[in-house]
Each structure stands twice: as C-alpha cells, then as structure tokens.
Amino acid sequence: KNVLVKDLQGVETLGAITVLATDKTGTLTQNKMSVVGSWLNGQILSATGTAEGTFEGLLTNSTPNLPALIDCCSLCTKSKFDPMDADKPIEERTIFGDATEAGLLRFAENFLNVTEYLDRHHKTFEIPFSSASKWHMTVNALGHEKGDLTMFIKGAPERVAGLCKWIQINDEVKPWTDETTEEFNRAYECFASRGQRVLAFGRKQLDKNEFPLEFEFKRETPRNFPDDEFIFMGLISLMDPPKKGVTKAVAASRTSGIQVVMI
Known about the structure:
Layout: H1 8-15, E1 19-22, E2 34-40, E3 43-46, E4 57-58, H2 66-75, E5 80-81, E6 95-96, H3 99-109, H4 114-120, E7 123-127, E8 135-140, E9 149-155, H5 157-162, E10 164-169, E11 172-175, H6 178-192, E12 197-206, E13 230-239, H7 246-255, E14 259-262
Parallel strand pairs: 1-14, 3-4, 10-13
Antiparallel strand pairs: 2-3, 2-13, 5-6, 7-8, 8-9, 9-12, 10-11, 12-13
Helix pairs in contact: 2-3
C-alpha cells in the first residue's frame, strides 16, 4: 500500500518471500559503536552506569587495571579524532577510521586526552588487523620498570586468548589455566548472547636489554620478536544501537510470516 514502483514484479516478489536475510551494521543499526561492558579482573562489569542482570559491578575510575585497558584502547589503534572539532562533546566528535575503534577511542577519551597520549607514546611498530590473524598488534614507546617499549594486541577473543600465557587479576599476574578458560568463555558468551561485539586485549612489557627504543622489528616470518606469551588484560563489549523504525519493521515482517535472519 502507498508504494510507488517502476516494476510491479518487485512488489510481487517481495510479497512472496518467506525469509528475509539482512546485513546488520549500517543497515539495521546506526553504525555507532559504543562500549557497554567489560570483563576485567575476572568480573563482568557494566560501562553504562547501570548494572543489571548478569553484571557483577560497575566500571569506574577506581577499577583496578582500568588504566592498562585504556592504554590498549588508545594506543593500539589506526583511528584518530578529527582535530578540527576538539571543542565538541566526545559523542559528537568525528573520528577517522573503523566504527569499532571509534567506539574504543570515545570510551578512552572519557579518561584521558587520546590524541596527546598517542603523540606522547607513539607507535614504533605495527602489524595491522587482517582476516587471517584476526588481531591488531602495535609496539608503543610506553615506558615501564623493565624498559621503554610496550607491545599491545587486540582482536577476536579466541585468537588473542590463544596468544596469552598469563592474565592480570587486580595486582597479580596469574598463569592462564583451564579455570581461566571457563571464566573467559562465560564472559564471552554473556556479551555475545546480547548481540554485542566483543574484543580482547593483551599487552607485553618488553625488556630494554633485548628490545631497546631503537630496535627494528620485522614483520616477516620468522619474526625477530616473540609474538605470543602476552598478559591478558580483559574483554570489552560494544553495542551498535538499532536505527529508528527497525524494531517495528522486523516485528511487522514476523507478523506477516517472514523469518528475519541477520547475516
């Protein structure tokens, strides 16, 4: 009803469908990723200010190891804020880059000035995300007790977890065990079951005796640096809110006997 078409066959075909397969990002959703939760120190925490259902607490400034997780979000990235609108609120600022990284940068910007922080702790080496590895790795000039360089990794939870030998729990670095895997899967499934995108983060503080500030990392295999044995820092879940009208459209399709599948 009330539709103008060039070819009536299009309407006839649509009226005969039983299954509607649709894309998600930018089609059903606004393509605006925002951080909603985290698995940190072995706890499932809410980043939205309200802890309902399976959340075990709130992510706050006083949460242990949050600064290290913020380091991963702000330094292991290929995206950046547009410097022309620095005076705008965080949610309104333009970010050049991937929608997921934009969500992480907005989250990190609540705790520090991301642009200045990345300038101060610049990247000295990088392996970009690829569909084969499913992770993104950078080495940044972030000093610590053992040296001047820190390696960060972020990506698909199962891939990043496979490269981690330890996990950070409060002020302790503990070995990754079968029990850790069970807790990891519980948190991963908790976020994924809500339709959220989940990323894992890890870091490795490099010893200056082996990796001085001027060390030349090589991307080719065999690599001249260890690309495993990371310390697992945590999971972050992001949500892309639906577009206006999507809920009604999906409901109307189901009422008409059409099965809607997100692919």
